[in-house]
Every structure is written in C-alpha cells, then in structure tokens.
Write a structure and sequence with these properties.
The protein is mainly α and about 150 residues long. The chain contains four helices and no strands.
C-alpha cells in the first residue's frame, strides 16, 4: 500500500506539473491571441470607414458619369459644328464671287466709258474708289474664311 501511495503521490506531482505547464502555455497563447485580435469597437470603426469610402467613391463615379458626353451626342455636336462651318464657308465663297462680279462689272464699265467720248475724270476717280472698296471687302472676307478654317482645325 505504501507503494501505491507513493505511486499516487508521484503521479499527483506529475499531474500538477503537467497542469502548470499547460496553464503557462495557455496563458501565453491567450496573450498572443489578445495581441493579434481586433476589438469589436475597432471592427465597427473599420466597417463604418469602409462604408464612408464606398459612398465617396460612388459619388465620384456618379459625378464623372454625369459630366461624360456620350459618343453619339459628341458626334452630333461635331456634325452640327461641321455644317455651321460649311455654311460659313459657302457664304464667304458666295460673297467673294459676288464682289468679284461687281469688280469685273466696274472694270467693264470703265472700259466702256474710256472708249466713249467726254472727259471722265470724276467718273474714273469714283470707279477707282469703288474698286478699292471692293478689294478691301474681298480681303476682309478672305481673312474671315482663313480665320474660320484655322479655328475649325483641331
């Protein structure tokens, strides 16, 4: 019986040491877990922050989409602008042609008059002034067309 009591005491001592060793390992594990875990408050804060970030991102995307011009609308604007430029060019060409016709008419009138009798000094000065005016108009229209072409080229 003495042997069994000694065996029990030895066994009890081994168990106590095992329990102490397991206890210290458990404490170390719990401390490591506490150092590496995230608290509930921090999780809530992170979730709220993520929601705020998502909301800002969605608002930014919505603003970009509202500012976008779709390809069809862009092409329509360019087509309209192209027609306007063509109309301006046609008007300028028509005006230049009209002025050139007037100039040619003035020249022919001058030729007719110079072949006729009489002194036409006043008439000649009037014709020269008219020709000068018409040339100035042609130059202005030519400059307008050139400026429009420069503005329309990207």
């Amino acid at each position: 019986m003495r042997e069994s009591t000694n065996d029990l005491k030895a066994r009890n001592t081994e168990l106590v040491q095992s329990i102490q060793m397991l206890s210290s390992e458990t404490n170390k594990t719990i401390q490591a877990l506490a150092a590496n875990t995230v608290s509930r408050q921090e999780m809530d804060w992170r979730a709220d922050r993520g929601t705020e970030d998502r909301k800002r991102t969605d608002e930014s995307v919505a603003a970009i989409r509202n500012a976008m011009v779709y390809r069809n609308e862009w092409m329509e604007r360019n087509l309209s602008r192209g027609h306007d430029i063509e109309n301006l060019r046609d008007d300028a060409v028509r005006d230049v042609t009209n002025l050139q016709r007037q100039l040619d008419q003035q020249r022919s009138d001058f030729q007719v008059f110079s072949n006729s009798l009489g002194n036409g000094r006043d008439f000649i000065t009037d014709l020269k002034a008219e020709q000068s005016r018409l040339r100035d108009q042609i130059a202005a229209l030519t400059a307008k067309v050139a400026a429009e072409q420069n503005r329309s080229t990207p």
